[in-house]
Structure formats: C-alpha cells, structure tokens
Design brief:
By secondary structure, the protein is mostly helical. It has one helix and no strands. This is Golgi integral membrane protein 4.
Length: 138
C-alpha cells in the first residue's frame, strides 16, 4: 500500500513538474512576446515623435518667416502710406496754386476784355467822328 501510494505520489510529482516546466516555458514565451511588442510600440512611438518634432520645427520656422514677412509688409505699407499722404498734400497744394493762378489769369483776362471793349467803344466813337468830319468836309 505504501509502495503504491509512493508510486502515485511520484507520478503526481512528475506530472506537476512537467506542468510546471510547461507553464514556465509558456510564461517565458509570453514574456518575450510582450517585451518584443512593447519594444516595437516604443520604437513606433519614438518614430512618430521624431516625425512630429521635425514637422513642428519646420512649421515653427515657417511661422517665423511669415511673421518677418508680415513685419516687412507692415513697414512697407506704412512707408507707402506716408509717401501717399505727402504726394496728396503736394498735389493739393499744387492744385490750389494752379486754381489761384487760373482765377487770377481769368480776372486779368476779364479786365483786359473790359478795357479792350472800352477802347473799342472809344475807337468806334473816334471812327464815327472822323467819318462824320469826312462827310462834313465833302
């Protein structure tokens, strides 16, 4: 009975050892696969991070370039606005001056026309008198 009991215990122990060995191998395989999956995921994450980081640098540089362009364009715009204002003032002054000259010239011409009309009247009168004297003399 003891021998049989001992024999069953040894078989049971051998069976337990086999199952333990199998479980240990399965665990090592699982651990290795999990470690590989973790490493692959870590590598993928690092690659994504690198790509995003370089894209961020590119976008940051583009942003800086656009900011510089905006500043340059604002300065150019302000400069052109100032030039425009000066040109407008100059043209307004020139226009006012030309308007004044025109008004003065028109006034002078009207005055000259008035004087010429007066002179014409006097000449007509003188002509009429000369004509009358000629007729009288004849």
């Amino acid at each position: 009975v003891v021998y049989e009991h001992r024999s069953r215990l040894e078989r049971s122990l051998q069976k337990e050892r086999g199952e333990h060995k199998k479980t240990k191998e399965d665990f090592l395989v699982y651990k290795l696969e999990a470690q590989e999956a973790l490493n692959k995921e870590k590598q993928d994450s690092m690659n994504r991070y690198g790509a995003l980081s370089s894209q961020h640098k590119i976008l940051k540089n583009q942003h800086e370039d656009v900011k510089k362009q905006l500043l340059d364009l604002q300065l150019q715009h302000n400069s052109l606005k100032l030039e425009h204002r000066k040109a407008l003032e100059t043209h307004s002054q020139k226009y006012a001056q030309l308007q004044q000259e025109k008004d003065s010239e028109v006034a002078n011409l009207q005055d000259t026309v008035f004087k010429l009309r007066e002179e014409s009247k006097l000449l007509r009168k003188a002509h009429q008198e000369v004509h009358s004297q000629l007729l009288s003399a004849q």
